[in-house]
Every structure is written in C-alpha cells, then in structure tokens.
Recover the amino acids of this structure.
C-alpha cells in the first residue's frame, strides 16, 4: 500500500483531490463542521505522507542565509506596504490601520494565532508537501512555481473575491520562489506570516477572513 503511494498515478490522483477538488468543495455551501472535518482529515493525511512516505524530519537546515532572507523580505515588504497603504487609503480610509489603533490586544492575538495555526500548516501543505510530491513531474522550475501559485490561489476561492485570488496568486509566487531557493518551511512561513500580518494591519484583513 505505502509503495503504491509513490507511483505517478497515485500522486496525480492525490494532487487532483487535495488541490483541486477540496478547494472547490469548500466553496460550496454546506455545514462548517463538515468542511472542518474534511480539512482536518486532509491535513492529517499530508502529515502522514510527509513523515511516513517522504521521510521528512522537519529539521532546520543549518546553512540558511538569514541575512539575505531578511534583506529580501524587508525590501519586498516595503513595496507591499506602500502599494497596500495607498490602496486602502483610496478605497476605505476608515479601515486604514483600524484594528491596530482601536483594538491593539485583538491585533496582537490574531497575529499570533494566524502565524502559528494558519500560516505554518499552509506552508507545510502548499510548499513542503507540494514540492516533495510533485516537483518530479515538472521539467521547468518556472512552470512548477506558476502551478503552485495557481493552486494556492485556488485554495482561497471560497472567499469569492477576485482581489483575494489575485493577492494569493502573487503571494503564492513569492512563497514558491522562496521555498525553491531555500527548501525551508520555516523561512517561507516567516515570510508568509510577515506579509499576511501586514495585510491585516493595514486594513485588508476583513476580505481575507480576519476578525476585526
């Protein structure tokens, strides 16, 4: 059974179910507890495959270039901050830094919960698992990164918001490029958390499902 889980046919079926069918199913209206159950089962399956099939040990690579990472992430964050601040100011001035200013305790709480319980699981699934299971099928790294960004955007289709899909596609490109370079779930999770926390902070959290 475990040997069959490494075959091309099995992996392609797995990809279709996890990254195409489930996101579309989550966009359909039915009880939230069923969606949460499906999501939980899917996540447990991913962890099982990473540990038992891919033999992943979740160790921190000793050769990570933290200086380069912070420099690149900082520059990218400045660009994102400028663009999103202008966007929120021009479309909904009341939302600009609203939670940070009026509900700072909630702001801190949500940033922590989001970073630990949302970002890291997403990166395990959409970067670590995706790359380890399906990279072998792609001769072109740019195309691999593009497909990864597409399925990451598709995972947010339940928001039914074209701007969210565009943002998550762009984010998926950034995170896939980072993971392809570093092979570090930790680094890409930190990067993901920084950009996501900024969007919540600047006032774009509501459309991304953040409570405010």
């Amino acid at each position: 059974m475990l040997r069959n889980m490494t075959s091309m046919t099995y992996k392609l079926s797995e990809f279709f179910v996890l990254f195409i069918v489930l996101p579309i199913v989550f966009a359909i209206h039915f009880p939230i507890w069923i969606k949460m159950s499906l999501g939980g089962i899917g996540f447990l399956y991913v962890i099982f495959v990473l540990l038992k099939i891919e033999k992943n040990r979740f160790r921190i690579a000793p050769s990570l270039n933290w200086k380069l990472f912070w420099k690149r992430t900082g520059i990218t964050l400045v660009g994102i901050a400028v663009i999103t601040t202008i966007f929120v100011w021009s479309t909904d001035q009341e939302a600009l830094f609203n939670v940070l200013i009026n509900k700072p305790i909630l702001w801190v709480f949500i940033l922590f919960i989001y970073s630990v319980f949302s970002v890291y699981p997403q990166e395990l699934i959409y970067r670590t698992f995706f790359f380890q299971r399906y990279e072998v099928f792609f001769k072109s790294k740019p195309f691999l990164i593009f497909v990864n960004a597409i399925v990451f955007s598709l995972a947010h289709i339940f928001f039914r918001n074209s701007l969210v899909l565009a943002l998550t596609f762009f984010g998926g490109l950034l995170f896939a490029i980072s993971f392809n370079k570093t092979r570090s779930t930790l680094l890409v999770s930190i990067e993901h958390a920084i950009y996501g926390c900024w969007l919540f902070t600047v006032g774009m959290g509501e459309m991304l499902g953040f409570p405010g």
